[in-house]
Amino acid sequence: MQNENTVQEGEAIRIRNTSIYPGEHVQISLEIAKLPSRTPIEIPIYIYRAKEPGPALLLTAGMHGDEINGVEIVRQMIANKLTIPKRGSVIAIPLLNVYGFLNFSREVPDGKDINRSFPGSPTGSLASRVAHAFSEEVLPIIDLGIDFHTGGGSINNYSQIRCVFGEGNNDELARVFAPSFIINAKLRERSLRHTATKMGKSILVYEGGEALRLSRSPVRDAIRGTLRLMHHLDMIDREDLREMPDTFNQIEPIYIQRSRWIRAKAAGIFRTYARNGSFIEKGQILATITDPFGEFKVNVKATEDAYIVAVNHHPVVNQGDALFHIGFTHE
Ligand SMILES: [Zn+2]
Q: For helices 216-232 and 68-79, what crossing angle results, to 10°?
């Protein structure tokens, strides 16, 4: 198994002009561009190499700068020394989109989404440059990775892994990670997952919580899942987690074969009754939409049995807005 790893035993990992050898823990800054104020924008990368060989696992977050749960997942892992493996390497990028983080926005200042800009270009606009640096410097040195996200806008995602079922070792990695839901999700053109898959690297996308909110359970679920994966990859031993015994509690993820959105038929104030993550039955009232004046009220009903995998937390909706993301365990 070991010689299948990207980085061979004793070999250096190289990022830009830095070589990182077994046993070294190094922080480097990948310079991307300069702000109009001439302030350089750099992506901090933390590399933890064990003396013993093993896989190189990427943990990356903050591609969408307003998705703070992901940043917190990687931050807590670094702060609690959970990114230090016994075998192999962890490459941790807590905050990829520094621009978006500063501006509380998903995108970079050119208005583009980094996750639609892969593999990127060294002469492109900002999103494209970030994607290019990532594709050139980070992806070649890893074996696999987890990309941490939340719902976009006011969408709150229940803890979930998104991957293509039946492709490579996705199924096995997702099962070991064991989030509440594992969702079959096609690759999107120009996404990190798309570029990584072409290079033969598995990237699991974790989604938990919503943008600009810090929520405890999606962060905890993701850290536990990452540790289970590291244990499965033989990067850490069970006794390394003796202070977190609940990490190995049996969790049975629910497999979602396909999903769709329930959308608003009317505009108004949106009040939800159904709990995120729960199973809903056909005919069940999930929410109401009312006008602000007490004159009308419409019920939002489940039209099929399904699981709720995401809920819109915005209190005011327009016609056609996404309300509930519902998932089915059958085709
Ligand atoms: Zn995201």
A: 50
Ligand 1 centroid to 24 CA: how many Å?
31
Distance 296 CA to ligand 1 centre (A): 35
| Cα 207 to ligand 1 centroid, rounded to whole Å | 8
The amino acid that residue 70 corresponds to is G
Q: What are the tens digits of pLDDT across the range 93-148?
A: 999 999 999 999 999 888 899 999 999 999 999 999 999 999 999 999 999 999 99
Q: Which burial class, exposed, middle or buried, applies to 319 when counting CB atoms under 10 A from its CB (0-12, 13-18, 19+)? A: exposed
pLDDT in tens, 135-151: 999 999 999 999 999 99
Q: State both tokens at 311.
A: 């809920």
Is residue 56 within 8 Å of 13, Cβ to Cβ? Answer: yes
Q: Give the Cα separation of 175 and 48 in Å (integer).
A: 25
Between the CA of 12 and the centroid of ligand 1 the distance, in Å, is 31
CATH numbers and ranges of domains, the chain: 2-255 (3.40.630.10), 258-328 (2.40.50.100)
pLDDT tens-digit series, residues 289-322: 999 999 999 999 999 999 999 999 999 999 999 9
Query: What is the whole-number distance in angstroms between the Cα of residue 151 and the centre of ligand 1?
Result: 6
Contact 106/66 with Cβ under 8 angstroms?
Answer: yes
pTM over 0.85: yes
User: Distance, CA 305 to ligand 1 centroid (Å)?
Assistant: 28
